[in-house]
Write a sequence for this structure.
């Protein structure tokens, strides 16, 4: 157990020192006290930004660590979001919404396993992996848009076409006769707790034996296979976990707003995780976490003034990333700071050592 | 009983027959070299043994089990270890990490760390352990790949032109490394065309020509076989080269 926890630091993650973990604790503490100083509207908005981070972390795992560029994050987001809606409505709310959450994420992961099986066992790779996942996303968005008629219902849950599905309860805990709804600050704390769990869990995963193989497969699948690894199973597991995280975002989003529409699945939405993760630094979980949150925050702030401007800026950021910092801006900045700090420490050691030198000689 | 055996193995690419009805038998504990001029079918036969290509006909047996249809990873799990012709290491990862990924198949915890250090020293890569593998010289990358193959603790080591691109000194050192491994009981199959290297290491040799077995025997018999000299160098050349 202790050995597993030690894997939270390792070669596949940046930020393994004491200084990093102190910063992590400081940010976590700030996140925990934030609701005490902010109004409920801002807490709700922060919660909304954080909900998307799971999807970004999932893409980082698949793309940055596993080398699989998936355009299908919103496909699984949509599957899980709609599944949660259908299940929560059919279960009648209450504590069964938690079962709906688990089942909805499970359904998204099963969908990922089915789609991933055909792609990975069919040796669909490289750019075609992106094309197939994007196609699946567009098909789902188109299909959901065509479900406006009253015949498109599952029990009492109507899909409602472009208007979207609504009427599902948020995540709820029934305590005696009282229902505790996970909304506002309570949902915010739930999301923060889940992010900490997922982030630390993913750090352990990528630094584990499994993570080593995932990175090896990204580098050279044939070499990895010649070391005795069935690379297809590792790719499928990575795809299922990454897609499951997109599904978790979908469930939390649906619970947060108590609605979900096809536009959260379609092309503009599908492109967003790619921009967040590319800009942040796809090959690092911490960079993805920080960068995605900052971009979501910036995007939302700009959207208040002009949605078009925000979209143009996202496109410009993607172009700038590809041309100027292919490994990502946030990770690039982090490494630059790390190098500067390292140089300063080395200089400090040299300066400190100078007065001792004559003494040793003497 | 042979550790590896091919029975009437063939490979056709459309109308071209690259390997035709090849019977090959590798005995446990030997260093066996597969030689032949360019286009003889050596690399194709190697890829059939490794599992990169499915054969068009015939059977491949390893440790008395049929592996004809087995995937490459399954063959490795049964005790083969493979080094392909072009150096194929994980270039973005550190030298140490390359070995670690291979070693974690068999070793855990402190034993893994110890074995990692032993292999780095054996391959003369200790000074480069924390360097990205892509920054190593060509010869060092070849050794690293051999090291990754050794890390699996194989019963049969398959090497496709392990000295390609190496200097004479590096080639000699590689030969000594292979002989050292063989002395510990490891069976080695090497595909090569560098005759000096083959003389240094080989115990038995199979010569391929035009996709078929042309000759087989002890190294001394093969290098003095006029037929082999002729297909290797063409008519009118001397016996040595």
């Amino acid at each position: 157990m202790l050995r597993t926890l030690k894997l939270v630091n390792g070669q596949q993650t940046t930020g393994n020192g004491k200084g990093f973990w102190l910063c992590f604790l400081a940010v976590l503490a700030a996140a925990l006290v934030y609701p005490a100083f902010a109004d409920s509207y801002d807490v709700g908005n922060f919660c909304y930004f954080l909900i998307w981070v799971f999807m970004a972390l999932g893409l980082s795992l698949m793309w940055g660590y596993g080398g699989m560029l998936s355009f299908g994050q919103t496909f699984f987001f949509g599957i899980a979001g709609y599944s949660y809606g259908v299940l929560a409505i059919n279960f009648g709310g209450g504590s069964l919404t938690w079962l709906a959450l688990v089942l909805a994420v499970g359904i998204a992961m099963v969908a990922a396993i089915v789609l991933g099986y055909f792609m990975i066992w069919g040796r669909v790779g490289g750019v075609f992996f992106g094309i197939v996942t994007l196609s699946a996303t567009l098909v789902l968005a188109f299909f959901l848009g065509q479900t406006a008629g009253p015949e498109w219902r599952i029990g009492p849950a109507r899909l409602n076409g472009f208007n979207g599905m609504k009427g599902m309860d948020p995540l709820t805990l029934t305590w005696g006769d009282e229902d505790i709804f996970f909304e506002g600050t309570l949902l915010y704390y739930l999301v923060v707790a889940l992010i900490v769990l997922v982030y630390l869990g993913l750090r352990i995963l990528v630094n584990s034996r499994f993570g080593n193989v995932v990175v090896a497969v990204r580098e050279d699948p044939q070499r990895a296979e010649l070391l005795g690894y069935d690379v297809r199973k590792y790719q499928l597991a990575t795809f299922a976990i990454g897609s499951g995280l997109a599904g978790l975002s979908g469930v939390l989003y649906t619970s947060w707003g108590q609605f979900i529409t096809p536009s959260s699945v379609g092309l503009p939405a599908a492109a967003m995780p790619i921009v967040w993760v590319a800009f942040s630094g796809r090959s690092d979980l911490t960079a993805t976490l920080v960068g995605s949150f900052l971009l979501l925050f910036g995007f939302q702030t700009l959207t208040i003034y002009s949605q078009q401007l925000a979209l143009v800026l996202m496109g410009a950021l993607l172009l700038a990333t590809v041309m100027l910092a292919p490994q990502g801006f946030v990770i690039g900045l982090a490494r630059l700071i790390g190098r500067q700090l390292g140089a300063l420490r080395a200089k400090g050691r040299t300066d400190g050592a100078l007065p001792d030198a004559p003494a040793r000689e003497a | 009983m042979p550790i590896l055996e091919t029975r009437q193995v063939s490979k056709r690419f459309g109308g071209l027959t690259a390997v035709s009805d090849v019977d090959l038998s590798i005995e446990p504990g030997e260093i066996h070299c597969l030689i032949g001029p360019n286009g003889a079918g050596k690399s194709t036969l190697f890829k059939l043994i490794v599992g990169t290509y499915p054969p068009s006909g015939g059977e491949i047996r390893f440790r008395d089990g049929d592996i004809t249809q087995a995937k490459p990873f399954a063959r490795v799990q049964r005790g083969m270890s493979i080094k392909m012709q072009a150096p194929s290491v994980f270039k973005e990862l550190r030298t140490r990490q390359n070995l670690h990924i291979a070693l974690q198949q068999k070793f855990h915890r402190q034993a893994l760390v110890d074995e990692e250090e032993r292999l780095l020293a054996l391959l003369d890569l200790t000074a480069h352990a924390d360097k990205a593998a892509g920054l190593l010289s060509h010869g060092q990358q070849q050794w690293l790949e051999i090291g990754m193959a050794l890390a699996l603790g194989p019963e049969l080591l398959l090497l496709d032109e392990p000295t390609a691109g190496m200097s004479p000194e590096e080639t000699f050192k590689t030969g000594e490394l292979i002989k050292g491994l063989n002395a510990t009981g490891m069976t080695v199959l090497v595909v090569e065309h560098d005759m000096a290297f083959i003389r240094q290491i080989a115990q038995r040799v199979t010569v391929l020509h035009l996709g078929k077995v042309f000759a087989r025997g002890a190294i001394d018999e093969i290098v003095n076989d006029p037929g082999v000299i002729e297909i290797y160098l063409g008519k009118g050349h001397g016996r040595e080269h």
Summary: The longest helix of chain A spans residues 231-257.
